[in-house]
Prior knowledge:
The complex is a heterodimer of chains A (about 60) and B (about 230).
Chain A: H1 6-11, E1 18-23, E2 26-31, H2 36-41, H3 50-54
Antiparallel strand pairs in A: 1-2
Chain B: E1 2-5, H1 8-22, E2 27-36, E3 42-49, E4 58-64, H2 68-84, E5 90-95, H3 104-110, E6 122-127, H4 132-137, H5 141-145, H6 151-158, H7 173-183, H8 192-201, H9 204-214, H10 216-229
Helix pairs in contact in B: 1-8, 6-7, 9-10
Amino acid sequence: MSTNDRFVMNNVPLEYWAVIQRLGHRCKVFNYENSKPIFDDFQFTGLSNFDFLTTEFYLGGFDQE
Amino acid sequence: MAIFVEGQTERIFVSKLVREIAGEKKVFIATEKPMKSRKGERIFTVIDVTKIPTDEKYYVLIRDCGGDSCVMSDIKDYCEKLSKSGYEKIVGLRDVYPIPASDIPKLRKGLVYGIPTRYIPIHLVLAVMEIEAWFLAETTHFRRIHDSLTPQVIASTLGFDPTVEDVESRPHPSEDLKTVYKVAGLSYKKRKNSVERTVEAIDYGELYLEQAERVKSLGEFVDQIDTFLT
């Protein structure tokens, strides 16, 4: 399923996520397979899954802050 | 001051602790929990107040966020609004568990990620490894729960003496409480009456004067309340 719903996102474990970033006519996908360290690091923020998206943590983890 | 906690145990304990530390000082405490609105939105609703507010000098809001992964997100989402409402500071309290002790430095560093710092001072306290470590440290409370729970019985049951050893080294203190209470045929479950029984049995003078010195994370939390009330 695709969603932007907070409740759904907070109740689906991150390892089942695929975040799609649109850059012009291209799409980039971030998921557990291609971004495992970032996905694993998120637990140390203490934030909810919804904020994985809102803070754009998926882009670079702690390195991008 | 607004205190964001992860669940019922913390909510019940923190409310009692603030009242005990404040003593005769004029403190009004409101406690909130998240509920679902008719539209399915998550909103905070007042579930308890100490009394009808009159001329209290200190106002403490305790927000039970309903989960460890909600504490930081709720602080992030509400810090601006609380600042505009006149709050002086926010304190967040959550357990380290289930994250292992070896990752505490990483957790301390990571918890500030995405948290705005421009609106209001925000202090994050990690209960190492769980808030139950603080209950474990206040060993006099066990005899008030049941006469048979002497320091000798506790030490031999756990293979660990919480009166002198470091309670923050225990990986799962809530399980330790459960193990000790079981000796007296009692249980420790994260249910309201079970938590209230423990919280009411604690000697807050002992906790404040002795254990806050010995248990680092408890001392940090007590400091936050103390500085607010002075």
